[in-house]
């Protein structure tokens, strides 16, 4: 096999395997911003390059993507291709967005990103919706963005960068060894260019984030327990008031059981670049 860029037997593979290969070749980790007011031209996700290879690859990409005009469907030339199993949905500026139609995006997303400094706003709303099953039934991980970093050398964090991806962000998971390695490699390269970039360390952000998150989740689970407990509706108003403010213990068996239904929350950085 002197030419590793081609694989002649590919068309002879069963279609199920070919589709799996196409799906695996889709880009991972693109960030789709979902906000009340957003310059859509700068943030919409373009069709992945693999969708232009052939009819079969485009069909696979379309099957996995939410392809629609956004935030409204009026402009057919202003579509986004959001792939819920590969891309990250960043929630910002006005969640839960009462004036838009977020359902397709919320149903498809497997990864969310939220500003870690907003525990009494968007994070609380998202946690409440996750606990009550209102949205995000497919979400497996929620990135709590501790810091947003802008750098002209941002493509070094995205080896799969293409021209059409320029201007988008990328999430660096502070609990992921490969992302931590990327940060260290970038810092080493930056020092060789006589730059001194500063990145927050995992231990500096994770402990306070975990403490605040645990308190918030226990409080929301306590409120949910009171809301769904049939016996609470037969008590007096005074008892209701007491129960609605009664916070369950983190070690409570019911709390632990409900906690297992929630996605993994991870501290992260959002790296933005400019062209």
From TrEMBL:
Alphabetized InterPro entries for the sequence: 2EXR (IPR045518)
Boundaries of every 2EXR domain copy: 7-89
Pfam families given in the database record: 2EXR
Protein name: 2EXR domain-containing protein
